[in-house]
Design brief:
four-stranded antiparallel sheet, alpha+beta, single chain, 10 helices, 13 strands, six-stranded mixed sheet
Length: 301
Amino acid sequence: MQINRLFEIVYILLDKQIVTAKELARHFEVSSRTIYRDVDTLSSAGIPIYATQGKNGGITLLDNFVLNKSVLSEDEQNEILIALQSLTATGYPIIDITLSKLSSFFKKENYNWIEVDFSSWGSNEHVKEKFEILKNAIINNKIITFEYYNSKGEKTNRKIEPIKLRFKAKSWYLKGFCLTKNEDRTFKITRMFDVKLTEELYTKKHLDEELIEPEKNEVDNLINLKLRFSSSVAYRIYDEFDKEAIIKNKDGSFNVDASLPRGVWIYDYILSFGTTIEVLEPIKVREVIKSKLEDIINKYK
């Protein structure tokens, strides 16, 4: 990644004072022409870097240059370190190295004050491997294939151009252009299996967030629910619903007005609360829950 190479070039120059383009090219395994382009990029960004010709020539920084005083304010330094620490949660390549180097640049000893981890408890190596494939596919513009199960359990084989990973409502989603359906789609990552990275490259295009259509039978619109919970699940209520939607009753129970995506998943979600929940409205959802409970009772007769 160019951004990491640029930071490391500055780091090397601060450490060694002067280095030839050939030495840097050999270190980064790129051409000398690429190194000179990097020098131009750094110079345009305000870094006092220059190259000299001759026997003792090379690439160097102006004397007494200190990165943390010349380019960024104290607040900007802290914001960069926080952003990099957040990126570690996605397994972004060599972020730890970059974070360590920048903390040295900025002379920050206590930068490691926050830890972000989006993985669920008990996540296994298969989950990490899946994210590694998706990360590499997005960064390197490579097409992926996978099996996908929708909310009804129907399986389809997909081939997509991945664009972006998104974390929302406690779940990870992948946005991209589905070559199978020939349209922009969003996929829930937990429903993606046998994810494979191909060697096919694609040109990354602008993703129109407004036009993206979620996978069919996924989030298409919302249903308004009125729910009542017993006091024993207060911890879960405040975890999963907005505080403004929760009303605590005098007997200790809770009423919750919730707007959730339509789909068959909603019934399993409601039933996951067991005897601690009652659906007050809408009546149709209440009747479906009643029917499912009767089916459960029949299985145990």
